[in-house]
Amino acid sequence: MIKIYPVEIRSFRSLSEIISFVDKGIVWYESYLKDYNESLGELLREQGGNPEELEKKLREKGLAKKETAKKGGKKKGATTSDEWFNYKNLLFSAEKQCKAEIFFEAIDKFKNRLEGLKETKNLLGELQKNGLGSDIAYWVYLVEGVPEKIIIEPAGKIPPKVKIEMFMSTSPESLAIMQESVKQKEPLIDAEKLPEDKQNINTVMPTGRLSEQSQPEAQQQATSNT
């Protein structure tokens, strides 16, 4: 499953890659939307609590209830409840009603992003059918996982995917595995499938240097065996 960032710029080599990324984003948002809907349902089924003691603590700390917006003065998306305590524009509440309110707001945001992704997927599909995509690379500006702007460049502008061969140890056992892998010409590991903390290709040491650095360890092991 992909990670969703507030703002991100990603490169793609084809419209198909962008569509695949969008599909993963749709799955991501649908999963969270389902979880939040279930949590909201459980909250609404709960019996009402007694927030007076908690509200008393807020008042003791100098917090006051937010003023109710005047009629006709509410902005779209503004908080509608008057049960919030305001501390320098940071809102607090002990009310179940306000807890439900934040779940409703989160669900609305998920729905909006989900609709945006589905609409983008349809648009990209139309462009793909019209033949856009040959010898073109794409830089996509994403907001919360949703493509908003796309820069196109010649395909050669984006370097090819790098495949690397990585061994996590220079012990005699790992050296033997490495040598056997070279003999059998096993396929290289795709960098994109490695854990994120192992994908920095600048830290990968060439096979020759691995072998040279492993020789003292191997000699030491041979001496101990005799």
Brief account:
This protein is an alpha+beta fold. It is 47% helix and 15% strand.
Task: State mean pLDDT (0 to 100 scale).
Answer: 76
The strand count comes to 8
In spatial order, strands of the major sheet run 1-5-6
Q: What is the CA-CA span between the terminal residues? A: 51 Å
Number of helices: 5
Given as residue ranges, the uncertain stretches (5+ residues, pLDDT < 50) are: 70-79, 162-170, 185-216
Please trace the helix and strand order, writing H or E for each element.
EHHEEEHEEEHEH
Major sheet summary line: 3 strands, antiparallel
Tell me the domain tally: 2
Radius of gyration: 28 Å
Shape: elongated
What is the helix fraction of residues, given as a range? 40-55%
Structural class computed from helices and strand pairing: alpha+beta
* Beta-strand content estimate: 15-25%
Q: Can you tell me about this structure?
A:
The protein has 226 residues and is of the alpha+beta class. The chain has two domains: 15-69 and 77-130; 163-225, no CATH class. Helices cover 47% and strands 15% of the residues. It has five helices and eight strands. Strand 5 (136-143) and strand 6 form a beta hairpin. Residues 70-79, 162-170 and 185-216 have low confidence and may be disordered.
